[in-house]
Design a protein that fits this description.
This protein is of the alpha+beta class and about 100 residues long. It has one domain. Helices cover about 25% and strands about 40% of the residues. The protein contains 3 helices and 5 strands, in the order βααββββα. Strands 1-5-4-3-2 form a 5-stranded mixed β-sheet. The radius of gyration is 12 Å and the shape is globular. The mean pLDDT is about 90.
């Protein structure tokens, strides 16, 4: 993984909006990850995943919030978002 450039302007595609609603992920949480990513990983040319550790207030549990972004368009488009408790799996051993 490599350091990520903050993204301040983006759009949410319909799939991302649907998944955020289904998974109870707020736009503010996505914005936080995009503007202050802890890591980024290239998935394929034009698509990266930004991620950051976040604590959900309802459970006080730390999760990894992963935001998949198509950066080959303007503005960048958020393709999907999810959170996982398997931080070590995606953090490459630095949890």
């Amino acid at each position: 993984m490599e350091p990520a450039t903050p993204i301040t302007t983006y759009r949410l595609i319909n799939h991302a909006q649907t998944e955020m609603a289904r998974r109870h992920i707020a736009v503010a949480d996505v914005t936080h990850v995009l503007t202050a990513p802890e890591h980024a990983e290239v998935i394929r040319p034009g698509r990266v995943v930004y991620q950051a550790r976040v604590t959900w207030e309802t459970t006080a549990t730390t999760y990894l919030l992963r935001v998949f972004i198509d950066i080959d368009r303007q503005p960048p488009a958020v393709a999907t978002v999810y959170r996982t408790s398997k931080i070590v799996t995606y953090w490459q051993g630095t949890a």
